[in-house]
UniProtKB/TrEMBL annotation:
It holds the Pfam family Beta-prop_AT5G49610-like. InterPro entries: AT5G49610-like_b-prop, F-box-like_dom_sf. Residues 155-429 form the F-box protein AT5G49610-like beta-propeller domain. It comes from the Eukaryota. Coiled coil: none annotated. This is F-box protein AT5G49610-like beta-propeller domain-containing protein. It comes from Aegilops tauschii subsp. strangulata (Goatgrass). SUPFAM superfamilies: F-box domain (SSF81383).
Amino acid sequence: ECGAQLRWEGRQTMDALEVIPPRDDPEKKPCADVYGESQHHSLTTSTTGMDVVSKVLDDDNLLREIILCVGFPTTLVCASLVCKCWYHHASDRKFLSRFHEGNPSHLLGFYLEDTDDPSVAAHFFPMLPQPAELATVIRSARFSLDPHRSEMSDMMGCRNGNVLISLYDGRDFTVGVHSPLHPERGLAVLPPFPELQIQDGYFCGMNDLLLSKEEGDGLSYIYVLVESTMERTKSMVHIDVLRNGDTVWRRHLDLATDRFLCPRFDPKAVLADDKIYIASAQRDIVVLDLMGSSISTILLPQGVEYGDRDTTLARANNASGVYLIHAKKLELCIWLHKGGNWLLVHNICLREMVAGLKMTGCEDENEATAPLRINHVGDYDEFVFLEMSRCALHLDIKYKKLRKVYDVEEKDRHLGDIHPFMMIWPPTFPTLKNDYGNAI
């Protein structure tokens, strides 16, 4: 269908060109002695060209390979507008999975949260330069959180084009969801968290863990509460789920263990492949298996312990494992836990990179006096935001490139929390019209 349409348009164009008579120049003669033979040659050439186009556009496998090269979700949507044939290829789930593997979500920018003053709304900073296709997206978005400043208590993070903020009306806390790339949606407010009566002889060890995962065209949310005995001998984990489109939280799981769980708030917990990874104690990771209804523990790699913002977790790219990123002096080590073992996948020395930035406290490339801390890490260990010498640094792990993206102002005591904002995935495709043509 698509190939037929393009062949017709090409045939029409070529015909229009062929009605132009040859120039009558006595000094120059056509390649053929007879005009009819020259016109026949033109017809043959145009027909051959159309045959080549037809072979490409009528070959679904080859067409999909071509569409894979468009590079950005925005241009993928544009490609889907050519005709129904292209639309079905571009919006196919298997194709989208392949496209995302070769074209991971782009970092559009980051929010910087002032952790000293909750009354100040987090500010968005674009990552520049951006490709023209994504620069247009940034210009048309509405990133400001100022309209919600009066009721906003703090920022909870970003997920797939959404910004989660904690709202307080003077009595209750709720969670608001702001969509900068779709400002027409307004601020969505999640139902209040489920209330739980803490058992006698127990105390609440964690009650503010909110995780999210992509589901359909939106997000589902998971709320985790941990309570433990006063004697610190055993614990109970309660997990509630708010699925995309639901209006009430539903109890998903209650897990009891004879071990004392000591969850840490730093590094932040990670959800990957229906498993929740929570940092615990000095060198443990507690794994809550939502499908297997079990609790297990992973020990950190040999010689690694939780310190002052020097260790963090990130989900693996196939959602079947978890990364551990650890900073020590000017060295960054990245492990992947999969199949019950830790595998060191990156060992990055930052000494020369840091020296090239010429920051205060880092002038001597042999010994940097300013400590290196991890502020935030992107999913799939693609990038890390580091904190050093009152500066925010962005490290592209794949290309081993480090650059400074923010200087702390003199009035601020420290940097604050960084929340990366990624391009939304998958893109939103237009709805097909119920007609018999190729239009959508």
